[in-house]
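Go through the following before class.
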Amino acid sequence: MKIAVLSDIHGNISALDAVIAHANRQSVDQIVNLGDICSGALWPEKTADRLMKLDFPTIRGNHERQVLNGTPDQMGLSDRHARLTLREDQLAWFAALPETLRLSDDVLLVHGTPDSDLIYFLETVTEQGVRPATLDEVAERAGTTDASLILCGHTHVPRAVRLTDGRLIVNPGSVGLPAYDDDHPFPHVIQNGAPHARYAIVTKENGEWEASFHMVAYDWEKAAREAEAHKRLDWAKALRTGMV
């Protein structure tokens, strides 16, 4: 079994199309999507249409939840752009997505952790910034989940951690946004240092899951110009450089 793992597309259909094409050249058996699909400064409607047609196994991220709740005047800029752009049928698609999904008995899809779409799984945020989570922290967040492979997103940082009991947790990184800043639970920045789209492929061989990580070139200049057209200079810089 060979699964391409996509997450955090954030309305970047140019990056999405490049990643799907790359994954198909790797002869994957399946493509899955871990949420945060459309919020951002780019192309929410086109991205939703593409994914609705492809019908990949997909879960809801925190941004889908945020877009569905509240009113545009209460939302951040990225969620507001999505809410004001998406059609009612696309919002209904969001609402029908599960928060987590068992792809099979031993594969679980989550956005943040099995219990939260906001908690970072493989990173820890402190008042001093972001650091890789310790093995004990990752094990605590995994809890009693019995899946041998847990696929997570949210942080945009590609990383895999294998627990002492053999469970593998994989974050594929972000398809659509290589850097951002946030203030939950403390102010911090995530920076991958390059503008490429990112995803992972997980493969089960001899009864054990392994992960490989991929960086895909696409027309990030086009995406940056789209962000500038929506007055999101922060996004334009992140898309061009992978830095905040």
Observations:
- Residues 13-25 form the longest helix (13 residues).
- The helical segments are 13-25, 44-54, 62-68, 77-85, 88-96, 135-142, 220-229, 233-241.
- The chain has a mean pLDDT of 97.
